[in-house]
User: Fold these one by one.
Assistant:
Number 1:
Amino acid sequence: MKHLKREKVEVIFGYPGGAVLPIYDKIYDSGLFHVLPRHEQGAIHAAEGYARVSGKPGVVIATSGPGATNLVTGIADAMIDSLPLVVFTGQVATSVIGSDAFKKQMYSASQCQLQSTATK
């Protein structure tokens, strides 16, 4: 959070989930304003709107697995429109990746590969 504050970030858009809950404690403690949508897609598109209107990067946080994949369209849209976004997603513990412990095997396909076509 200190790095976000140093960069003068004031607003974070995001939807909490297991993998990012510890980060949410830090957001609360930091005093940054958090916008809680009803879905991750709402977060990414709200961040796009914020970036479009303010000229500042929209900052988004979502949990791992389907939380991360729900951001794909908004990330691609922001890239096409040259809107600045900073997107954070969670990840399950390295020791359980591939074990299907979280029933997210289909979502553990490389998020980096999935998002790479829509990022700079």
Number 2:
Amino acid sequence: MSTTQPGQDGASENVFVIEPQETIWTLARQLISGQHTITQLNESARLLRNAKPDDPAVLHHLSQLQRTTDGWFRAALPNLLAEMQVAVEAHDTFGPGFTRVEDPIDAAAWNNKVLVWRERLGGTVGSNGEAPDAC
């Protein structure tokens, strides 16, 4: 995993790397962009619903839009917030700047924090521990 998000560095799950300030900014941008997208989708859905409330193609499209919106609130949003929470915790624990935790036990604990926070924030978690694809 890159240093812009909390978690392992891709080489090993026994390592945790993060640059908390960069991570927060990256995730904040994703959060803002995602919410703008959801707002636009909801406005489009409202306009479609009002224009052609009985059109089967429109109803199908509205159903797809609703699944996307649900995915945002059940998966993407809790995942972003969980990653932000871990970045804040890492900043509070280690201070600003790049952090690399190489102790396997400590790294595993830090790598698990995103999963724990995602569950606490109401997010869905797949069987592999990852957030399902959303948006």
